[in-house]
Write a structure and sequence with these properties.
- It comes from Erythranthe guttata (Yellow monkey flower).
- Keywords: Acyltransferase, Transferase.
- This is very-long-chain 3-oxoacyl-CoA synthase.
- It catalyses: a very-long-chain acyl-CoA + malonyl-CoA + H(+) = a very-long-chain 3-oxoacyl-CoA + CO2 + CoA.
- A nine-stranded mixed sheet has the order 5-4-6-7-1-8-13-12-11, with helices on both faces. The protein has a two-stranded antiparallel sheet with strand order 2-3. It has a two-stranded antiparallel ribbon with strand order 9-10.
- Helix 11 runs antiparallel to helix 12.
- Helix content is 38%, strand content 18%.
- The chain folds into two domains: 202 residues, Thiolase/Chalcone synthase (Peroxisomal Thiolase, Chain A, domain 1); 195 residues, Thiolase/Chalcone synthase (Peroxisomal Thiolase, Chain A, domain 1, 3-Layer(aba) Sandwich).
- The protein is α+β, with helices and mostly antiparallel strands.
- Strand 4, helix 5 and strand 5 form a beta-alpha-beta unit.
- The protein has 14 helices and 13 strands.
């Protein structure tokens, strides 16, 4: 009793138009990197053109200003402050909850750890109470927002009628990789600026005002395996240039983590009759049975880490194109915004008026370490807020998501990747 976790509301960040970066601009950024050879240049163009990312994603100001090779700490802090102010101001104004009412504040930004902490910066700006419980999480990767929610969920068990704010983003500005290691330059192509602020409570009086209620959350960690631990990590290349390494074994590791996570969380949301059916077929049937996951959830909120990630999860879960459309469109419109990506996907579902009272939403995300975290929400009322998608939602899905520069750069696909 009294241990519910309600999602009151959330606000995603939409940077200003001058921060938009299209394929042509990405090509000019690549051309500025004097460490790249002809083959490296072709490799990066191939990734960009085939990434599934569209022409309206956003980058940090220092890259727009051609300062990607000489970032400062202040670039990273200003990038975060711009996002904090926009989303938190809207969240407090929209919900009517005052910053002084917040009991718990969790900020997760993997690649930026400043002093004072990012949480302290928010507390200072909004003059929050002196007894607020603040947590600053780093190094958690793309799955950090669900880790933050799990932290809040556990605090709620010992504190009644509390409010918590989770702030989720990634620092792109000071973390541009300027080398030519193919395993490290991939992140430059996939990650974009964004972020989300989320208001949670366990106050039962807010049940009728809240959007969703958390039903279950499962975290799976494969960190005890050297292979899993090393497949995605911040490191330096052989020239001492800092970047994020993505190993060739990452898809295999993600599949392992995902399989373990599904095995546990499925028992928490699937109907009893579906579990019985699966067990009976497993022991008496001739074929390996497949769980009907749609028997327990209505919507699938998949982390838009890339086209390969979305497609792999789609095939493993037996989903249709309708199920993964929100993730594909989020990748196309906003790119991979790391831990906040899930909330852009949820926003797409809401803007499309797909979420109805009583529906179940399954969020699935992956992160370095290696982790797979997922949770199931129950929708408490019909949702139709346009949120960050606004007027854009009527243009999605487009007739084609093919890169408009495919014709210009089509020659890069004639060579086979190693």
């Amino acid at each position: 009793r009294d241990q519910s976790c309600y999602l009151v509301d959330y606000e995603c960040h939409k940077p200003s138009d001058e921060r938009k970066i299209d394929t042509k601009f990405c090509g000019s950024i690549i051309a500025r990197n004097k460490n790249l050879g002809h083959e490296d240049y072709k490799f990066l163009l191939r990734i960009i053109v085939n990434s599934g990312i569209g022409e309206q994603t956003y980058g940090p100001r220092n890259i727009i200003e051609r300062r990607e090779n000489s970032p400062t700490l202040q670039d990273g802090i200003l990038e975060m402050e711009e996002f904090f102010v926009e989303t938190l101001d809207r969240l407090f104004r929209k919900t009517g909850v005052s910053p002084q009412e917040i009991d718990v504040l969790v900020v997760n930004v993997s690649l930026l750890s400043s002093t004072p902490s990012l949480t302290s910066g928010i507390i200072n700006r909004y003059k929050m109470r002196g007894d607020i419980k603040s947590f600053n999480l780093t190094g958690m990767g793309c799955s950090a927002s669900l880790i933050s929610i799990n932290l809040v969920q556990n605090i709620f068990k010992s504190k009644k009628n509390a409010f918590a704010v989770v702030v989720s983003s990634e620092s792109i500005a000071p973390n541009w990789y300027s080398g030519n290691d193919k395993s490290m330059i991939l992140t430059n192509c996939l990650f974009r600026s964004g972020g989300c602020s989320i208001l949670l409570t366990n106050n039962p009086d807010f049940k009728n005002r809240a959007k969703m209620m958390l039903k279950c959350l499962v975290r799976t960690h494969l960190g005890s395996s050297d292979e899993a631990h090393n497949c995605c990590m911040q490191t330096e290349d052989n020239q001492g240039r800092l970047g994020v390494y993505l190993g060739k074994n990452l898809p295999k590791t993600a599949t392992r983590a995902f399989t373990k996570n599904v095995a546990e969380i499925a028992t928490k949301f699937l109907p009893f009759k579906e579990l019985v059916r699966y067990i009976v077929l497993k022991y008496v049937g001739k074929k390996v049975p497949i769980l009907d996951l749609k028997a327990g959830v209505d919507h699938f909120c998949l982390h838009p880490g890339g086209t390969a990630v979305i497609e792999e999860v789609r095939k493993n879960l037996g989903l249709g194109e309708y199920d993964v459309e929100p993730s594909r469109m989020t990748l196309h419109r906003f790119g991979n915004t790391s831990s906040s990506s899930l909330w852009y996907v949820l926003g797409y579902m809401e803007a499309k008026k797909r979420l109805k009272k009583g529906d179940k939403v399954w969020m699935i995300t992956f992160g370095s370490g290696f982790k797979c975290n997922s949770c199931v929400w129950e929708v408490l009322k019909d949702l139709e807020d346009g949120n960050v998608w606004g007027d854009d939602i009527d243009r999605y899905p487009p007739k084609t998501t093919a890169n408009p520069y495919l014709e210009k750069y089509g020659w890069i696909n004639q060579d086979t990747l190693e």
